[in-house]
Design a protein that fits this description.
mainly alpha
């Protein structure tokens, strides 16, 4: 099977070139899945109050 350029992959899949560049080097699905980090927010101390309102 012939190798495709990243630009060709993007055109074929309808993806933005930056998206193709971001995901092309991944060697597993796990690296493609976004890992969310819990960051502190200014409202963290008030979440329960806000939910009650």
């Amino acid at each position: 099977m012939a190798r495709m350029s990243k630009a060709a992959i993007g055109r074929r899949l309808g993806l933005h070139p930056a998206t193709v560049r971001k995901f092309a080097p991944a060697d597993s699905v796990g690296k493609l899945i976004a890992q969310t980090e819990q960051r502190a927010h200014l409202v963290d101390d008030y979440v329960e109050y806000l939910h009650r309102q």
